[in-house]
């Protein structure tokens, strides 16, 4: 079967108009869809970006970067930020390259459609003239006939004049009728055999281009979204690497580096003998035996209970209630 | 350098407490981050899903499925819906499997930390007793000394008694001092050499487990997001296939199938001769020559200008002004 609108659908202008209108509506609807998709992507990207910003560790603790888990989290947030940027690019592509182009194209298509319709209007033909001349011819013929009947009954002097006059009038209107009928048939033939095929073919071309344009936009949209995936994949790999780079032992080691005082734990408190100046009857050996004196201190001693200590002792474990 | 908190950071309890507190804060902060990320994903998924729903073509035009571009758009929306479902799964995984688990773990860690701190409190030792007994000893020694000086000057009868009494008191307080000093030194030794190493080591273990848990959560989060990519890729491939399956020529062909009336364009309107009953002096051949009669109609004729037409003609091109 032929698919040519110009020859097959010559009498379906209203339906074609409805159909192509639906096509343009769809074009606008699809454009709206792409725009709304772009808006969703943009809002998503913004949320992701502000999440990344919100959770970035405050630099108040300047030693954050010593700890692998801090570094890993910072890297995760950085990657998240990159992913937000990719989504923003996608949103921009959907909006600028696809939706805006489609909007422009829709305007062009509407303008072209209008031009084609106007070409059709110029080619309209009218049957009014034919009807008028046809009726006049009919009336004149009847009058000529009546005149003929009258002349058959009355005197011959006036007879020929009246009949001949009416016949001449009928002859005139017949010529006019013939001329307008010929013109009509000529116009009608040109309309259905030349104009309609050309215009409808153009409408079909426009429709096919519109559909091709939609297909193109759909391809571009999917393609631009597909481009995000490898980039997103790289970000996720980087996040995974960041997580893998966390080393708990290294981190607790850093805590030692940061906080170690270098002091040894306090040794025994020594006995202070206030009885040195006393005359004593009891030997001091009794208590000296119990003292754990003579413990060797290989490292520097923590200056226990002295004032102006350079490093405070672990107070929390002691309740010095002096 | 040794990384053992138990031996290296014996005097840094406050700092360790601050550091591990920071660790727990981070755990809670990271949990919050994952939850917020999950919320963003969920809201994104919902928006995508409702976009897909909103643009699904109304079934009012039951012939939508005839047109490849309609089918392609429906497929695109379906894939978009699937992508929303994947994002919902991701949100659910982030929320339920990661954030909720972390919350539970944080509670456990806090409880464990409390237990460890309490164990530390039980092991506290006090210097108060030593100070008190030391002072008492000092005072008694001074009094004994004073008694000695006095007895050196006064009569010998009372001398021995007073001095001896004071000496005995000094001796008593010395014993008490020695006992409390020994107890203190013993407690202190046990504290710094046994308790602190054990407890601080446990705090370090907790810290290392906490960091390992964070690393695990980060890995899981990246992994669950990475799982979305191949699924998303398949959806985008399907969208691309849908776009590729659009066939403009097939679609305009379907329009012919749907709307074709099967009628031929109208032929010429025939001349109606009202002058048949007239006596005529002029030959009819003059106008018959111009008529394009005898055109052959191989297909069924469109019933031009007849009433009760089965198929209306293409009215838009004619302005019948009767």
Automatic annotation (TrEMBL), chains A, B:
Give me the stretches of Basic and acidic residues compositional bias. 311-322
Domain (F-BAR) ranges: 3-251
InterPro entries under this entry? AH/BAR_dom_sf, F_BAR_dom, FCH_dom
**Heme listed as a keyword:** no
Which keywords fit this entry according to its UniProt record? Coiled coil, Lipid-binding
Q: Which GO terms describe its molecular function?
A: lipid binding
Xref: SUPFAM superfamilies = BAR/IMD domain-like
Q: Where is this region: Disordered?
A: 152-174, 303-322
Q: Coiled coil: is it a keyword of this entry?
A: yes
> Which PANTHER family has this protein been placed in?
FCH AND DOUBLE SH3 DOMAINS PROTEIN, FORMIN-BINDING PROTEIN 1 ISOFORM X1
**Record's protein name:** F-BAR domain-containing protein
Q: Which organism is it from?
A: Poecilia mexicana
Q: What is the lineage of its organism?
A: Eukaryota, Metazoa, Chordata, Craniata, Vertebrata
